[in-house]
Structures are given as structure tokens and as C-alpha cells.
Design brief:
four-stranded antiparallel beta sheet, globular, six-stranded mixed beta sheet, alpha/beta, Rossmann fold, 10 strands, single chain
Length: 255
């Protein structure tokens, strides 16, 4: 059984079709890409899978369960987390607190425990803090635990966002343009980071990315959409030489 199956997924906004009858599959332990021209519907697909939109039609099957209609926190609890094209960190909170907030559904205590500061509350808070610090240590950013994200370089903020997404122990990590806004040196570091994450963590990674260097270096399989429709699937070499993909990016006159 595949980890994720998207079946006839369709999303309409005021009659405009952003995603049309999309069918995709992602297996266990895969690092795959989703590309397409600007406005192709890529982020809409991620918003549907992660629960930010409820699909007009179709199914999103994750480990045999249909996610369509679930809220983002419910999807996250089931094992799908994501980053965003525009970094979304709580700028007024410390790096450590940003990581801890992402673990809220794992705490296992109720309001009563919180209000009376029971031993259960104290024990779980301590465990979560230790786990968060350990994760920051693994990614070599523990020294920034008490810093606010706004004081960090852009590339470091991107790393913090990825760590936050990983902190809840996902089975599928969605990366929405992780190289957006990065300098060339930071892009090379990002490629190595994603490669390392895939090798070290027992997860699948699905990424949207405009920088072809990132996608072609990392992904074993790539899907291409244009105007919300799937136009090609294959290996990086197959995609680079696909007539429909070239036409979607460059137009008929340049093919």
C-alpha cells in the first residue's frame, strides 16, 4: 500500500478550477517532487493534502484513511507536516518555543493537569523540552534555542522551520519551495540538509521547488502539473526531456 494516494482531486474557487482530477501516488521512503509553472496549482495541492482547504471533489488517502475535510492539526497528528514558501515562524517566540508548540498534540495531558501543574504535566513538559533540545542539537542549532527567529539569517530561519516540521515525527514531510529566497551557498547547504534528513529519518519527502537544481539533484521521481492538471510524471531525466513539460515552461514558440 502506498503512503499517500490522491484520487481525482479537484478544487474549485468561485467556479475557477485550480486543481483538476489529479491522481498521484507517493510510496514509503520516497523523496519526490512536484513542479510546474507559476500558478499551476502546486501550493493548492499541498494546502489540500495538509487540510488548509477542503477539496471540492476527490480523495486524499493517507495510510488507508481519507483526509478530505480534516483540519490541519488533525492531518498533522496523523503524520503529515509541512513548511511554507514564505517562512511562517512565530517571530516573537524563541526558536525552542517554536519547536515545542509543534509538539502540542503529543503532550498527553488535559487542562486540569495544566491548571494544577500535576506531576503528569511537569513530566511531559520536561520530556518535550529535552526532545526539542536534542533535535536542535542534531541540526547544530542548539546555540540559537533562546534566540527569536527574526534575529537569525534567512537560511537559518528556513532550517528552524524544517526542524519544527520534523519535531512531531511525521511520516510525510511537505516542503513548499524550501530554496525560496536563499543565496547560492545556502541552496547547496539546503540540498545536503534535505539529503541528510531523508537518509537519517524514516520518512517520505514531497517537495515543490522552482530551482531545478534542487529538484533534479534530490528527487527520484517528479510530477508536473499545469493549470491544475497532471501533464507528466517520471525520473528527472525523463522530465527534462518531456515535450509537454518544455512547452508548459517555455511556450509553443520555444519548443
Amino acid at each position: 500500500m502506498n503512503l499517500l494516494e490522491i484520487k481525482d482531486l479537484t478544487q474549485l474557487f468561485s467556479g475557477i478550477c485550480a486543481v483538476s482530477e489529479l491522481n498521484l501516488e507517493i510510496g514509503h521512503r520516497q523523496l519526490v517532487g512536484l513542479i510546474g509553472p507559476n500558478g499551476a496549482g502546486k501550493t493548492t495541492v499541498f494546502n489540500l493534502v495538509s487540510g488548509f482547504y477542503k477539496p471540492t471533489r476527490g480523495e486524499i488517502i493517507f495510510e488507508g484513511r481519507n483526509l478530505a475535510g480534516l483540519k490541519p492539526h488533525q492531518v498533522s497528528a496523523l503524520g503529515i507536516t509541512r513548511t511554507f514558501q514564505n517562512i511562517r515562524l512565530w517571530k516573537e517566540m524563541s526558536v525552542l518555543d517554536n519547536i515545542l508548540v509543534a509538539q502540542h498534540f503529543q503532550l498527553g495531558y488535559g487542562l486540569g493537569n495544566l491548571f494544577f501543574r500535576t506531576s503528569r504535566y511537569l513530566e511531559r513538559e520536561s520530556e518535550m523540552r529535552c526532545q526539542a533540545l536534542e533535535l536542535l542539537e542534531i541540526f547544530k542549532i542548539r546555540e540559537y534555542a533562546d534566540e527569536t527567529p527574526g534575529n537569525l539569517p534567512y537560511g537559518m530561519q528556513r532550517k528552524v522551520e524544517i526542524v519544527r516540521a520534523l519535531s512531531s515525527g511525521p511520516k510525510l514531510l511537505l516542503l513548499d519551495e524550501p530554496a525560496a529566497g536563499l543565496q547560492s551557498a545556502d541552496v547547496n547547504e539546503l540540498i545536503e540538509l534535505i539529503k541528510w534528513i531523508f537518509e537519517q529519518f524514516d520518512i517520505s519527502i514531497w517537495m515543490i521547488e522552482h530551482q531545478m537544481k534542487v529538484v533534479m539533484t534530490l528527487c527520484s521521481h517528479i510530477s508536473v502539473i499545469d493549470f491544475g492538471r497532471l501533464i507528466a510524471q517520471g525520473t528527472p531525466d525523463e522530465i527534462q526531456n518531456n515535450h509537454e513539460v518544455i512547452k508548459a515552461y517555455l511556450g509553443d514558440d520555444n519548443v
